[in-house]
Amino acid sequence: MAALQQELIVRGEQVERVFINFQEKKYVVNRQYQRKLIWTIEEKQSFIDSIIKGFPIPIILLAEPLGRKDGTLEIIDGMQRMNAIMSFITNDFSLEGCYFDLNTFATTKDLLDRKVIAQKTPLLDRGRCLSIASYPVPLSIYEAAEKESVEEVFRRINSGGRQLSRQELRAAGATDTFAECIRKISARVRGDTSNTDLLQLSEMQKISITNKELDYGINADNVFWVANGILSKDQLRQSRDEEMVADIVAYMVSDEPVASRTELLDDYFGATFPETPTSKARFDTINQAVRKRSLELVDLDYQRVHDAVILLLSQAQATFTGLIFPNGNSNNPVPRYYQVVFLALHDLIVKKSMVVSNSKGLIARLTDCGKSIQVQDGGRWGADNRSRMIDSIVGWIQSYFEEDKNPDPAKVHWVTKFQNLLTNSMTE
């Protein structure tokens, strides 16, 4: 059977027309492969300045997925650029201290008159506003695009440069059981869950992490990883949190202790190219392991332990780093310390079906325990060292646990779920 002919249309559309489409909710973002908004305000301002000066900008690639009948276009490449244009027009940020004049064209004037958007001052001069409105944005529309093709195009476009982190490239379009599990857990811990993978471009700010002078929906300082000194804000924006969740989950579901290293994560997400028999075997094994437990139960297992950590730190009135390194941390790789403690708690709570019987004693035992955990430095973390450290913490804290008289794999504290329900409501 002949392959379906897919059409590529290239055209220039004035910013005014693009903004009208934006208002009519024509542009959507697929969270299965798109990252969050990460441009700094300086990057946005520089981009708007390029438009005003008439400099050429990179082409924005959109897709009209096969079978979609609502007329929406999926943004494959150019989400940060599109958001910069739309958010400048809606007065979310200024250029040289001045804001876009909403009286420049009919659509923005109507929004101003109906008090949908408030005009901020001082105004950017009308000539520069007109330069923005009339700028021809280069758009390439990939028509009749199959889902797999869209994901592959996204991966290929972003693999040639520094735009995406390694983890973002691994996760781009990866929809197998392990990748889906990591995506769900990571979003819940960050607090940027949404009820659907397809979001309007205008909704992305509500689930993106606050950047300097850009007040998005998720404050980076309040995200679990940053608030507890486990990851920095930059590491969070590079999706290092997803790498750590993937490392933890791989250990949770594997029959034998597994190492932690970049090449293994590539294999787990099916991102090794070219594929080898070894990488394919690892991919199949990890996905089969998640399916054996079930994605839902692995998700609940992680949530039970994560909520136990949150409650413990709340009782201790300390951050994770402050608890295990009360006298300060001398550039120790905190993510590995967190993994050791988390996986020790997973062993007790999930594998051994135990519950905390003495939280005060447990907190005292974990206080300053970082000095007793000897984790490997460097990019590779061997399975032996990893399992030895986890087992030592299990032995160190087990006396503060007791048998759970009513074991239930779906038993969670609802701490994280409640926080995410509030975020979900913002995107509806």
What does this structure look like?
- The radius of gyration is 24 Å and the shape is elongated.
- It has 2 domains: 8-164, no CATH class; 225-417, no CATH class.
- Mean pLDDT is 86; it is low at 1-5 and 421-428.
- The longest helix is centred in the C-terminal third of the chain and has 22 residues, at 295-316.
- The strands form 2 sheets. It has a 6-stranded mixed beta sheet with strand order 1-5-3-4-2-6, sandwiched between helices. A two-stranded antiparallel ribbon has the order 7-8.
- The chain is of the alpha/beta class and 428 residues long.
- α12 (262-268) packs across α13, α13 crosses α14 (295-316) and α14 (295-316) packs across α16.
- A hairpin with a 7-residue loop joins β3 and β4 (73-77).
- Helices cover 49% and strands 10% of the residues.
- Residues 23-172 form the GmrSD restriction endonucleases N-terminal domain.
- Pfam families: GmrSD_N.
- This is DUF262 domain-containing protein.
